[in-house]
Amino acid sequence: MRRVEVDSIKPSIIDRFLSLFATVLPGEGVTALLLMLNVFTLLTAYYIIKPVREALILGEAGAVVKSYASAGQAVLFLLIVPLYGMLASRVSRVWLINGVTAFFISNLAIFFILGRLGVAVGIVFFLWVGLFNLMLVAQFWAFANDIYTQKKGERLFGVVGIGASIGAILGAWLAGLLFKPLGEYPMMLLSAGLLGVSMVLTNWIHHRERSAPVVRGASKTESAERPLGSGGGFQLIFKSRYLVMIAFLVLISNCVNTTGEYILGQTVADNASAATVGSPDQNVAQKGYIGEFYANFYFWVNLIGAGFQMFLVSRIMQHLGAGLALFFLPVIALGGYTVLALVPILSLIRVAKILENSVDYSVQNTARHALFLSTTREEKYKAKAAIDSFFWRMGDMISGALVFAGTQLALNTRAFAAVNVFLVLVWLGIALAIVRYVKTGPAARIAA
Predict the structure, then answer these.
(1) H/E element, 188
(2) Residue pair 431/327 in contact by the 8 Å Cβ criterion
(3) 8 Å CB contact between 344 and 417
(4) 3-state DSSP call for residue 10?
(5) Contact (CB, 8 A) for 9 and 26
(6) What is the Cα–Cα distance from 123 to 61, expressed in whole angstroms?
(7) Residue 310 pairs with which residues in a beta bridge?
């Protein structure tokens, strides 16, 4: 491939536009925009079928079965992750991504047909959506890690992540707009169509990067045509101290966030009950109070998160790096849960969780994906899939166990906040260990 100097390329309109959000060098804009559009379609597709999942599981099985199904997703990943690793060992990256995406598209068509035939698919579909969300998104970020070098990724991942933020907002809006007129099963076909668009974008990016001139400092693409090694995702994780730390970072951070959601939900429910005493139909009034609260809550989370993603994340990542960017969320969470352990007032919990979730969906999410920029190609695809699926769900399961034990012991929200303070301190310790490892360990040599 022909080697060119960055300085000899003039910035395009796309380069100049994306420079509003990050430092985009000449020639980098098109690939960054295509990656942004790709993750945008994935998140839009997910948020379109997310309410379909809730409607089917709650309508067919109920909330209790839903809680059991959530735990079952972690167990299911014990089977899925090795199968994904076996496939990755046999095909190139573009065939891997196309094959997995086509699998999920075909599943949506099957669910549509079964639903039309009157078959109850609620439980299976609930489990399937958990796979869809975590596997496809993890695979996308593995692809982005495979394309970019350490420095380019830390500069441009913030721009790419804008697509995820906007896709989540648009997908949720479209779901609310289309659910009643279309119904749950046609919504599946809409998501399938978006996944088809994602496949087109993936192939476009792959062929563009393979045939593009080699820009000084760009990543090599020759190995993209070769299958990965024979190691499994879990094997790769437990062979690497760095990957083990990332896995436990994901587990603990998700456990803290899920427990925080319980604290918020319980406080909202208590306030709704107190605020609607004496209402003609207290049950209806309580649902209205809770619905109005969460509509406002998610509006501000999405709005502030998108603002952070557009204007702060790339600059934080470029100047501090992915390692130091990991500290923003636990420091905010530590302050928030310390205050909640002392003063568990709904207005304070609301502000703390809005800020926590906004930073989680923007700074933390981008930094977590960028940690894999310094890993091998095999670790990018296989280990990342295992971490972003199994260990993520394990965080949910541990949080569920904590909530179950705490409710049996009649712990109040202040006690749960105190538990989260302890977990955040552990989280900070893991983040510090990752930063030290990146600076002095093998990851630093790979990045160099």
Answers:
(1) helix 184-211
(2) yes
(3) yes
(4) coil
(5) yes
(6) 7
(7) none
Q: Which residues contact 330 (CB under 8 A, 6 or more apart)?
A: 253, 424, 427, 428, 431
Tell me which residue has tokens 């609260």: 293
As given in the structure block, the two tokens for residue 354 are 């809005």
Please, which residues have CB within 8 angstroms of residue 308's CB and are 6 or more apart in sequence? 358, 359, 362, 363
What three-state secondary structure class fits 87? helix
**Lookup: tokens for 175:** 């779901």
Q: How far apart are CA 108 and CA 354, in angstroms?
A: 33
CB crowding 243-265: b at 16 or more within 10 Å, else e: bbbbbbbbbbbbbbbbbbebbbe
What are φ and ψ of residue 419, in 5° steps?
-60, -40
Find out if CATH 1.20.1250 is the number for domain 1-230: yes
User: CA-CA distance, 448 to 442, in Å (whole number)?
Assistant: 10
| Delimiting residues of CATH 1.20.1250.20 domain(s) in the chain | 231-448
pLDDT, position 1: 45
Amino acid 155 reads: R
Q: Say what the pLDDT of residue 215 is.
A: 47
With 0-12 CB in 10 A as exposed, 13-18 as middle and 19+ as buried, what is 180?
Answer: exposed
Q: pTM here?
A: 0.87
Question: What's the token pair of residue 99?
Answer: 């094959």
Residues 191-207 pLDDT 10s? 999 999 999 999 999 99
Per CATH, which fold does 231-448 belong to? Growth Hormone; Chain: A; (1.20.1250)
Q: Residue 400: which of 74, 51, 76 has the closest Cα?
A: 74
Q: Which helix (H) or strand (E) holds 215?
A: strand 214-215
Confidence of residue 216 (pLDDT cuts 50, 70, 90): very low
- Residue-wise over 125-149: b if at least 16 C-beta within 10 A, else e? bbbbbbbbbbbbbbbbbbbbbbbbb
| Distance of alpha carbon 393 from alpha carbon 130, whole angstroms | 9
Tens-place pLDDT, residues 261-278: 889 888 888 888 888 887
